[in-house]
Amino acid sequence: MNDANEIKVRLSCPTAKYLLKELLADDYLLRDKEIIDLLHSALQRNKESMICSTHSKIVIDEHCRIFMPEYSHKEIKMPFLPKTVYLFFLLFESGSEFKNLYNYKEQLYHIYQVVSREKNLESEKLRRSLENLVEPLNNRIYEICSLIRRELACVVPEDLLDEYTITGKWGGLHQVRLERSYVHLHEDISQKLQMRFEDLECK
User: Fold this and answer.
1) CA 28, CA 23: separation in Å to the nearest integer?
2) Distant-in-sequence contacts of 134-143, Cβ < 8 A, 24+ apart
3) Helical H runs in the chain?
4) Which of 16, 87, 154, 165 could form a disulfide bond with 149, CB atoms 3.0-4.6 angstroms apart?
5) For 33-71, how does the pLDDT look when each residue is reduced to its tens digit (9 = 90+)?
């Protein structure tokens, strides 16, 4: 049987945070030298990482799944259309005004085909969906960007969220401001998109 000093308790993050706040509200504990030393040691140990380990790579694998490995091992899941829009803005670093997205409808169409791996695609239905997306007089693109931001907010630190999401002023230029050295697109996906975009230029 383990010694009492060796017992480890597994708590969820919210529960642990609540208990820690309750303990730190106890003036008696805050006068305890051992507690003070433990807190000081923990703060010193994490000080460098809190300052420097801020950004994560965006990894898009061969199945077009999105990961941010420095933040979480879990896939950042999105429906095909939001993922298409996010990938578009990652690929087109200079961004676009939403009212001009109509000019990129074919690029969005081909990105969608790669993202969905051409599963259950109904060409006319997809094109109608993209027409609705790029129509300047509706707010569909804003709804999609809100969904993307909501999914990213689950893993990206709040102070960096604006770098990873699609941002811009209403009616103005929108883009993902993240330094592109953090974006890692799988070679197979990159080649498929490059071939499709080159075919567009030849038409």
Assistant:
1) 9
2) 134/101, 134/102, 134/104, 134/105, 134/108, 135/102, 136/98, 136/99, 136/102, 141/85, 141/98, 141/101, 142/98
3) 13-24, 27-30, 33-52, 80-91, 105-115, 123-134, 140-152, 161-164, 187-202
4) 165
5) 888 888 888 777 665 544 544 899 999 999 999 999 999
